[in-house]
């Protein structure tokens, strides 16, 4: 774990779970797996708090437990999983694009809560959708299963099933069912398992009902002031039908989707819209026919591809063949050809082993690794260019090509005076090139800015609250005007600037994370080859 | 002796070329203060991507941050003991669900029921005792506690601790409103006039 990674993990944990959880989490990341008491001792925290922190971390799939030899249970943090928290908004947005609002909320609830039962998450999402739909009765809503003003559980259930079928959500590992004949004493902690076939199996639930609205003024017979009484969201004492079957978001599947998206858009940029649609179709077909862990997909005949093209695309078979040839001939080797039957067999390869296997067949295949490589290189080059100038970019490109260059050779090839070349090399080396460091900086800067303006932010929040409550009780325009003037014009200016800056910093975090994703995917793919 | 060669003349104790400066070259300026926290860069960064999608993801991110803070998983750091307990603190408590991890086992539910029964019994006994005692201020506190625990036992489950606390607050207020006047003042109606008269008789001279 690099210092930059640890720093970023610390910031993420602190923002999402508070200081105590952050302390425990970072400690585990730094030291590796440790038992409970050692954690408490080393961090100087009470056992109670350590337990609470561990519960939160385990609930969110950030820490796992393991029974060590001699029956000691140790806890281990997954640093890379902590870093994924940066990507949550992207996962949620992806779910929205694929399965609309219902899908979006389902994934959001799963990410916010770590693990949930299907019945719990369906109910929660139905409630949320109902709240947002209040008073929005329209035919459009009816077609989505909204009866009157309440969201039907069935509709939400259906979306959940679709998410499970396409592997975007998966079951959490469970305690294995022990046989009664097991003689030994029970282990200090159960080892959780999940079999491949069970992972996406949706339990047979008959979830009948509708989402409830939060406001219960018509139900509250006693007439007690609602403001003081917090509403119970879980009134039911009924047994949960799928108790023990917990679900979590399957981040790897989202990553696969991002990769596919990146390739499709790269093809679109390099060639044209039609080519990218063809590639997208090929990827979609291989999604269904093979699981992501298979070494290579079934070969796709151009006939099959032709049949699977999206409905709107009216290209003839010959044109499709021409496109396929073009794609296969492209030096970037996104698509490969592996035979001539069925109008030409095209293979999508996610793994290089298959490449060597099929090499005697002169394969044309979609080499994901290569694709990633090109994308990574391109992105790295542009980063260097923007950050250090075009001369540095020249050097960088050279180094990438030649792998090793001596200092003198760099000067010769790049045609830059010796001193400047040295200067730039040193700069590039010493500047921490890792994007993770950038993100950590961004977060720190944002927190810094927010703290600086804390007083102002609190003031504006109070004023807003006052205005809102006055409006609710029907205040006059003049009074509202007066309240608004409590914030002076320069303060308003400051707030505007602050808001703009914070938004910019947030947007930077998101986009730098996209670069991180690309580079990490490439590294992972490279490691798999070896 | 050989070591005195450079006496009086500035000489490096290490090979300057190893660091990268050739001999006789102008060395960089001496640094007098730490580098700025957020230094200016030579090259301005690339403009950010903008678009509907990006805006939505940004809004999502900010919303998520807010939501996370309100979830029960966000463990607040316990405050240090303050010398003076501020009155306003009681009314600034933010409602936050207590999260109990793991499935609720039947065993846990049963024990709760038991405690609630004993609670109610105790509570009733206490009420009787205190009515007899008739000490105003004390009964206030006792009433608050009783109300609190009564509410707690009514709910029964462990996830409603904060719930009870809120209701306790509510009931406290109610109690206080009702008890502007000391309870004992009107409690023993028979003796009311007689006692005070006696006292007054004694007091006047």
From TrEMBL, chain A:
GO molecular function term, any single one: single-stranded DNA binding
GO terms under biological process: DNA-templated transcription
Its biological purpose: DNA-dependent RNA polymerase catalyzes the transcription of DNA into RNA using the four ribonucleoside triphosphates as substrates. Specific core component of RNA polymerase III which synthesizes small RNAs, such as 5S rRNA and tRNAs.
UniProt subcellular location: Nucleus
Lineage, opening ranks: Eukaryota, Metazoa, Chordata, Craniata, Vertebrata
Ranges of compositional bias, category Basic and acidic residues: 223-240
Domain RNA polymerase III Rpc82 C -terminal, residue spans: 158-349
Domain RNA polymerase III subunit RPC82-related helix-turn-helix: 7-63
Species name: Camelus dromedarius (Dromedary)
One Pfam family named in its UniProt record: HTH_9
PANTHER family, per database record: DNA-DIRECTED RNA POLYMERASE III SUBUNIT RPC3, RNA POLYMERASE III DNA DIRECTED -RELATED
Protein name: DNA-directed RNA polymerase III subunit RPC3
InterPro entries: POLR3C_WHD, RNA_pol_III_RPC82-rel_HTH, RNA_pol_III_Rpc82_C, RPC3, WH-like_DNA-bd_sf
Assembly and binders: Component of the RNA polymerase III (Pol III) complex consisting of 17 subunits. Component of the RNA polymerase III complex consisting of 17 subunits: a ten-subunit horseshoe-shaped catalytic core composed of POLR3A/RPC1, POLR3B/RPC2, POLR1C/RPAC1, POLR1D/RPAC2, POLR3K/RPC10, POLR2E/RPABC1, POLR2F/RPABC2, POLR2H/RPABC3, POLR2K/RPABC4 and POLR2L/RPABC5; a mobile stalk composed of two subunits POLR3H/RPC8 and CRCP/RPC9, protruding from the core and functioning primarily in transcription initiation; and additional subunits homologous to general transcription factors of the RNA polymerase II machinery, POLR3C/RPC3-POLR3F/RPC6-POLR3G/RPC7 heterotrimer required for transcription initiation and POLR3D/RPC4-POLR3E/RPC5 heterodimer involved in both transcription initiation and termination.
Occurrences of domain DNA-directed RNA polymerase III subunit RPC3 winged-helix (ranges): 380-441
Gene Ontology CC entries for this record: RNA polymerase III complex
Origin superkingdom: Eukaryota
Keywords: DNA-directed RNA polymerase, Nucleus, Transcription
Residue ranges, annotated region (Disordered): 175-194, 209-242
Entry's family note: Belongs to the eukaryotic RPC3/POLR3C RNA polymerase subunit family.
Keyword Metal-binding listed: no
Main location: nucleus
From TrEMBL, chain B:
Biased composition (Basic and acidic residues): 123-137, 146-155
Spans annotated as Disordered: 102-205
Biased composition (Acidic residues): 156-180, 187-205
Keyword Nucleus attributed: yes
GO biological process, one term: cell population proliferation
GO cellular component: RNA polymerase III complex
Main location: nucleus
UniProtKB keywords: DNA-directed RNA polymerase, Nucleus, Transcription
Localization annotation: Nucleus
Homology family: Belongs to the eukaryotic RPC7 RNA polymerase subunit family.
Record protein name field: DNA-directed RNA polymerase III subunit RPC7
């Amino acid at each position: 774990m690099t210092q930059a990674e640890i720093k970023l993990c610390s910031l993420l944990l602190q923002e999402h779970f508070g200081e105590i959880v952050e302390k425990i989490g970072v400690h585990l990341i730094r030291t590796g797996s440790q038992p409970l008491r050692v954690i408490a001792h080393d961090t100087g925290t009470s056992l109670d708090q350590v337990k609470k922190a561990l519960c939160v971390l385990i609930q969110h799939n950030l820490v796992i437990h393991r029974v060590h030899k001699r029956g000691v249970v140790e806890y281990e943090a997954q640093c890379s999983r902590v870093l994924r928290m940066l990507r949550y908004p992207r996962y949620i947005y992806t779910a929205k694009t694929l399965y609309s609002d219902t899908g979006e909320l389902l994934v959001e609830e799963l990410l916010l809560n770590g693990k949930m039962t299907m019945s719990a998450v369906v109910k929660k999402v139905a409630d949320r959708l109902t709240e947002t739909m209040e008073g929005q009765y329209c035919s459009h809503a009816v077609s989505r299963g909204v009866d009157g003003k309440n969201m039907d559980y069935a509709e939400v259930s259906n979306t959940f099933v679709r998410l499970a079928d396409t592997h975007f959500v998966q079951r959490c590992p469970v305690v294995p069912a022990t046989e009664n004949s097991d003689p030994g004493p029970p282990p200090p902690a159960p080892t959780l398992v999940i079999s491949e076939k069970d992972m996406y199996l949706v339990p047979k639930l008959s979830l009948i009902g509708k989402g409830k609205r939060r406001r219960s003024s018509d139900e509250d017979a006693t007439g007690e002031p609602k403001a003081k009484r917090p509403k119970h969201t879980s009134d039911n004492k009924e047994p949960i039908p799928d108790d023990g079957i917990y679900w979590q978001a399957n981040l790897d599947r989202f990553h696969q989707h991002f990769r596919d998206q990146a390739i499709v858009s790269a093809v679109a940029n390099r060639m044209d819209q039609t080519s990218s649609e063809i590639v997208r179709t090929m990827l979609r077909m291989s999604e269904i026919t093979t699981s992501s862990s298979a070494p290579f997909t079934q070969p796709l005949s151009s006939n099959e591809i032709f049949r699977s093209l999206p409905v709107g695309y009216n290209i003839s078979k010959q044109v499709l063949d021409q496109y396929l040839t073009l794609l296969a001939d492209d030096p970037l080797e996104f698509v490969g050809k592996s035979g001539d039957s069925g109008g030409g067999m095209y293979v999508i390869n996610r793994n290089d082993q298959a490449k060597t296997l099929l090499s005697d067949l002169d394969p044309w295949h979609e080499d994901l690794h290569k694709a990633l490589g090109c994308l990574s290189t391109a992105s790295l080059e542009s980063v260097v260019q923007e950050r250090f100038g075009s001369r540095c970019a020249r050097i960088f490109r050279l180094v990438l090509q030649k792998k090793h260059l001596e200092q003198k050779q760099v000067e010769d090839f790049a045609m830059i005076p010796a001193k400047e070349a040295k200067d730039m090399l040193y700069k590039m080396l010493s500047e921490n090139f890792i994007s993770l460091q950038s993100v950590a900086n961004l977060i720190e800067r944002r927190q810094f800015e927010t703290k600086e303006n804390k007083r102002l932010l609190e003031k504006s929040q109070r004023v807003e609250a006052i205005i809102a409550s006055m409006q609710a009780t029907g205040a006059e325009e003049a009074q509202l005007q007066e309240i608004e003037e409590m914030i002076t014009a320069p303060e308003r200016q400051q707030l505007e600037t602050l808001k703009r800056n914070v938004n910019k910093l947030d947007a930077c975090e998101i986009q730098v994370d996209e670069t991180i994703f690309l580079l990490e995917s490439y590294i992972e793919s490279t490691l798999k080859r070896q | 002796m050989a070591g005195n060669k450079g006496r009086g003349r500035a000489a490096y104790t290490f090979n300057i070329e190893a660091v990268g400066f050739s001999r006789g070259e102008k060395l960089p300026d001496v640094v007098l203060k730490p580098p700025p926290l957020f230094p200016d860069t030579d090259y301005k960064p690339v403009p950010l991507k903008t678009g509907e999608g990006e805006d939505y993801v940004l809004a999502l991110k900010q919303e998520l941050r807010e939501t996370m803070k309100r979830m029960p998983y966000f463990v607040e750091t316990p405050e240090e003991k303050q010398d003076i307990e501020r009155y306003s603190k009681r009314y600034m408590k933010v409602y936050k669900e207590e999260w109990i991890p793991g499935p609720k086992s039947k065993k846990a539910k049963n024990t709760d029921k038991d405690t609630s029964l004993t609670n109610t019994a105790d509570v009733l006994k206490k009420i009787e005792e205190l009515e007899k005692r008739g000490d105003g201020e004390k009964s206030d506190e006792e009433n608050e506690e009783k109300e609190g625990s009564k509410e707690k036992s009514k709910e029964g489950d462990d996830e409603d601790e904060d719930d009870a606390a809120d209701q306790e607050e509510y009931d406290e207020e109610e109690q206080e409103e009702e008890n502007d006047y000391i309870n004992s003042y009107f409690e023993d109606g028979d003796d009311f006039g007689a006692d005070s008269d006696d006292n007054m008789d004694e007091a006047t001279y």
